[in-house]
Amino acid sequence: MLNQTHSKGTIQTVSGQVAEVLFSEGHPIIHEVLSDSEKQVLLQVYAASGKNKYYCLILKGRDHLNKGFEVMGKGHTLSIPVGSQVLGRVMDLFGTEQDGGKKLDLSLSKPVFGPAPKYRDIASKKEIWETGIKSIDFISPLVKGGKIGLFGGAGVGKTILLTELLHNLLTLQKGEKTDKTKRVSVFAGVGERVREGHELFHELKEKNVLSHVALLYGAMGESASMRFLTALAAVSVAEQFRDAEECDVLFLMDNVFRFAQAGSELSTLTKTIPSEDGYQPTLTSEMAAFHERLTSTKKNVVSAIEAIYVPSDDLLDQGVQAIYPYLDSIITLSRDVYQEGIFPAIDLLHSSSSMISPEIVGDQHYEALIAAQSILKKAAGLERMVALVGENELSADNKTIYRRARMIKNYMSQPFYVVEVQTGRKGAYVPLKQTVEDVSGIVSGKFDNKKPEDLYMIGCIEEKRDATT
């Protein structure tokens, strides 16, 4: 949407990365870009603050601002370069290249803010997308065209798991589907470390899949406005691939909580009264504006994998709870599991998926999952008894249950490709069918002759058997 009447205003106050502007001529539209005559500063209209007054996000040139500084509306909103030119590239919110490569063509761009697809254009597919990671495929499978969330506190392995998913889904397919529909990936790094983004770039380059990935970074050192807008800019890039380029898109974000946190910081700077939980009152609508655009259409799909930081390991934090309604599958990373030395540190009882039904995953998978969860729940009730008197004091039946639960937990550990250098273990990709057969064997007692330690950090059980024969 363009503003035909160019507005003109003067800076009244500057607070952090937010400026309050009084407009004497015309009225800007929300999200409109403002600049000065010498193009030293760049602002974006955020919200009204009073009669003819607006809060504006400072995107560039904060040092040049002072009371009375004049800015003018540009008649358009912020845009981001899109299309095949961004594949294999690292860029920021403004489309500025960060990888030392050639400049991107800014003429081919798309607005950062946009509407979600119309209801009649939305398609809902219920097809499992195999990742090769046992615990995810078995407990909380990724759905083509769906969304999966990786929840966890600091240092429990969210980024590593996200990177392994990206590696498995892209390296094996090289960006092409069997039906000739091109598959590309968009990665949004929001509020995370620059080092992690640098490592991901080189990891993708070494695996020869960088040409199928577009990377947008708004690191933790950037302002709240930059971090907030980077997430929305990445969505615009994904939309372009879905609608104009007719690609199936794998969208990854690390992490969504930092997007919510950036919105909270902006809300504080604009003197908005927070909600009862301490977050911005617009948290729910901001999450909706972000997630509803990441929707599959009847032509092409967008599959989203989102890492979500859990502050103080509190899953009831409102910033975390606001994300749950949009997810098809939930992966919960546990610090207790991490301290047991099981990687990925997925809590098998607190991870779930709306796709778990016999009609979607099949009878064998469904029955194996129900049986495994039953054993794990019973074993959790025996933990206190084992801690007090030891495993040997359990009854024969309880001892079997406890032992099989340990076998399931150890079996769900897995060596990853992306950390081979650090761990010294060769990465493993395990087909879903094999995982279901192995778990079925564990719960039925087929592998009771094995020690739980034998199933730690392996691929499938047959590989372990072949290695020991």
Helices and strands, with pairings:
Layout (H helix, E strand, L loop, with lengths): L7 E8 L2 E8 L6 E4 L6 E9 L2 E8 L9 E8 L1 E3 L8 E2 L17 E3 L16 E2 L4 H6 L2 E2 L3 E6 L5 H14 L11 E8 L3 H13 L6 E6 L5 H20 L4 E7 L1 H14 L13 H9 L10 E8 L8 H4 L7 E4 L2 H5 L12 E2 L4 H4 L1 H27 L6 H16 L8 H4 L8 H13 L16 H8 L1
Parallel strand pairs: 8-14, 12-16, 12-17, 13-14, 13-15, 15-16
Antiparallel strand pairs: 1-2, 1-6, 2-5, 3-4, 3-6, 4-5, 7-9, 10-11, 17-18
Helix pairs in contact: 4-5, 10-11, 10-13
Radius of gyration: 25 Å
β-strand number: 18
Task: Give the tally of structural domains.
Answer: 3
The order of strands across the largest sheet is: 8-14-13-15-16-12-17-18
Fraction in helix:
25-40%
Helices, by number, come to 14
What gap, in angstroms, lies between the N and C termini? Answer: 69 Å
Averaged pLDDT: 90
Structural description of this entry:
This protein has 469 residues and is of the alpha/beta class. It is built from 14 helices and 18 strands. The mean pLDDT is 90. An 8-stranded mixed β-sheet has the order 8-14-13-15-16-12-17-18, sandwiched between helices.
Give short descriptive properties of this protein.
8-stranded mixed β-sheet, Rossmann fold, 21% strand, Thrombin, subunit H, elongated, 6-stranded antiparallel β-barrel, Bovine Mitochondrial F1-ATPase, ATP Synthase Beta Chain, Chain D, domain3, 469 residues, alpha/beta
Offer a quick outline of the entry:
The protein is an alpha/beta fold and 469 residues long. The protein has 3 domains: 8-77, Thrombin, subunit H; 81-356, P-loop containing nucleotide triphosphate hydrolases (Rossmann fold), CATH 3.40.50.300; 361-468, Bovine Mitochondrial F1-ATPase, ATP Synthase Beta Chain, Chain D, domain3 (Orthogonal Bundle). The chain contains 14 helices and 18 strands.
